[in-house]
Design brief:
This protein is of the alpha+beta class. It contains 5 helices and 2 strands; from the N terminus they run E-E-H-H-H-H-H.
Length: 99
């Protein structure tokens, strides 16, 4: 296994179509060890610290689409993992969501 690419399709606001948000994991010895040891919960951290290797967190891809005004902030908030990072883009942030 060399890597994993996960794709999420998001509804565009600038035209009638979708745009993909990608999470990319380049398989390294460290990632292989995590899988072998059953510590897969640590893989998101490996994605974050391995950006120089080509890893890309899903939230980074989503954020780029928000910045380029391709998707609505509400769509980004719904699909992201780190809700706090995307709350500031919402016109009416949920009051009960403190994740």
């Amino acid at each position: 296994l060399k890597g994993v690419v996960a794709q999420n399709l998001l509804k565009r606001i600038d035209r009638k179509s979708s745009v993909d948000a990608l999470e990319i994991l380049v398989f390294t010895t460290a990632v292989a060890n995590l899988v072998r040891e059953g510590k897969t919960h640590q893989i998101p951290g490996m994605i974050q610290v391995g950006k120089k290797l080509g890893n890309q967190p899903l939230d980074d891809s989503i954020m780029e689409h928000v910045r380029m005004k391709r998707i609505a902030p509400e769509e980004a908030y719904e699909k992201c993992f780190d809700k706090k990072k995307f709350r500031t883009f919402l016109a009416q942030p949920p009051e009960d969501d403190e994740t």
